[in-house]
Structure formats: C-alpha cells, structure tokens
Amino acid sequence: MPRLPACRVGAGSDTIGGMEPYPDLILASASPRRKELLEAAGLRVDVRPQDVDETPFADEDAVACALRLARSKADAVPEAAAPVLAADTVVTVDGRLLGKPADPDEAAAMLRALSGRPHAVVTAFALRFPDGTRHLQAVTTRVTFRDLTDVEIRRYVVTGEPMDKAGAYAIQGQGMALIDHVDGSWTNVVGLPLPEVLAAWRGHVL
Length: 206
Hints:
Layout: E1 25-27, H1 32-40, E2 45-47, H2 62-75, E3 84-93, E4 96-98, H3 104-114, E5 118-128, E6 134-145, H4 150-157, E7 179-183, H5 186-190, H6 194-205
Parallel strand pairs: 1-2, 1-3
Antiparallel strand pairs: 3-4, 3-5, 5-6, 6-7
Helix pairs in contact: 3-4
C-alpha cells in the first residue's frame, strides 16, 4: 500500500482534486497581528472582518465587554463550514476601559494614564463551530509601563502606531520600549491568547 503524505498542523491541509480546501479557521477580524499569530501556528486562515459597535455598555467591566464583543463579531459571520474565531482586546486601568484612541491627543492621554504603573490587558475570544457549539474565554495579562516623559510620549504618538491599538500601544512594535515588564501571556497583549485559542480549537476539531 502506498504511503500517504504527512499532514500539516491544520485540519484541512491538502488541496483535493485541484480545489482549495476549507480554511482551518475563519477570522472575524481585520487585525494582521491575529492573522500572523494563527498562521505562525500552522493554521490556514480566511479573514472576514465584521463591523461591530465596540462602545462599552454603562458599568460594563473589561471582561464582560470583551466577551460580549467577541461573541457579537463571531455571530455576525454567516454560517460556514469552518470554525469562526473572533476576538476583542480591552485595556483597563483604575476601572477605566481604554479602547482604540480616536485621535493623537487621546492616544497621548492614554499613554500618560499608563505611565509608570501596571494595567490589565483583557483579550476575549469566541470560537463558533459548524455544529453550532461555541467556546467563549477571556484571558488577562498584567503589563507595567516604565515612567514615560512627555517627549517620549509625543515621539511615540507621531509614529502613528498607537492609533489602531487598544490602550494606544503595540507590544510587538515600538511600544515594547515603553514596557517595564509583563506578567502573563505576551500574545494576549498582542491581541490573541494563542495557547488558549489553539487548545480550544484542537479540543473540538482534532
């Protein structure tokens, strides 16, 4: 009997009959960072961003907000033959939720609020499987900034990097220079708790 070719990490790894296989995951996010993390883990990803109002509800804490938004994004994707993954990241300090800054002035204000102190980064993800089952989970990482000068804040804001990031910084970019230390998952701060996502995905499809 001829030997079968070895499979990739992904569930649908080989092209069959010249047709493209199903993706391992449908990612309901435009974030290139989330896509890169998943692809680095060997998964084939189909990106289908969803437009969801990310305004927090009154008195909603970071975990509840992130879980609600992740589920809303996953549910906005039409029925599909592959699992759907959505995520939402929220930064919180002193009970205040920091999303993406609306302009450079707000970005600078967020960075001043985080300077020299710890804050929490909460990323929630929702996995919706073709059989209708769902997995919802939130992961929290504690990040501490070093003391930042006004000049450092202005120089970072002018790079434009803070403008589409929760909390106005990117740990995987120039924002790493702002950080003193991280307690917990680094990929969670990037925007996706990769070990937890992979465990939930494998537990259902493999």
